[in-house]
Structures are given as C-alpha cells and as structure tokens.
Amino acid sequence: MRVFSPRRSRQQVLEALQAAVPRLRAALPLRRVVLFGSYARGDFTAASDVDLLVVYADPPRPDAFAAVWKAVGLRNLEPHVFAQGEFDAVAAGWARPLAEGVVVYGEPDGPAADR
User: Which of 62, 64, 85, 95 is 20 to 30 A removed from 29 (C-alpha atoms)?
Assistant: First the structure.
C-alpha cells in the first residue's frame, strides 16, 4: 500500500486563502470566509478537499460560485457559497463547521450588526 502526504500544508492553504481575499472582495461584497473541515481541524490527508464557506451580501448572484472558484484557484477546493439571506436560512446547520473553522475574513458569526 502506498501512502501519499498532502499536496500542501494547512499553513500553505491558509496563506493561499488569505492571498485570495482581495480577489474575492473585488468579485463579491464579501461578508466572511471560513476554512472548515479537515484542513481547519488539522486532520487532512492527501485525499482531503479544501472546504470553504463564503458568505457575501445580498442579493443572491448566479455568478457567485464561479467567482469564488476563479478568485481562489486552489486544487481540491470545495466552496460553499451563500448570499447572506440564504446563509441565514440554513445557519443552524453550520454551527459545528463554524465552531471548528478558521476565519480567513470577517467574523465567524457574521457581521450582523452592519447589515
């Protein structure tokens, strides 16, 4: 059996995501970006994807998912992209990923006060 190490470290992923924030902000009215899943917890493997929550200000945009893909550009990216209103409707299901996540931009619970 062959064992493969991850293509990139957790730190490399975080640095790539932080570098992508200006591109994301140029593409979307960004509210928050959170790395979650195995890279956030530190238990990633070579087969792990990069789970990313992106929340942007309303209204919903049909091009948002593609904009995130283009701005971030990481291999194995698994983006979960929501307008703020869409996210608010499903926020309860995101409690654990947000609790375990690493905030790349914004606040983990969202900037509700500035809506």
Answer: 95
CA 52 to chain centre: 2
Would you say 7 and 68 are in contact if contact means Cβ atoms under 8 Å apart? no
56 forms beta bridges with: 30, 83
What residue ranges define each of the domains in the chain, with the CATH number in brackets?
Answer: 10-108 (3.30.460.10)
Residues above pLDDT 70, as percent of the chain: 88
Type of residue numbered 9: S
Token code pair at residue 114: 């500035």
Q: Is the pLDDT of residue 72 over 70?
A: yes
Label each residue of the chain as H, E or C: CCCCCCCCCHHHHHHHHHHHHHHHHHHCCEEEEEEECHHHHCCCCCCCCEEEEEEECCCCCCCHHHHHHHHHCCCCEEEEEEEHHHHHHHHHHHHHHHHHCEEEECCCCCCHHHC
Token pair 């914004």 in the structure block, residue: 106
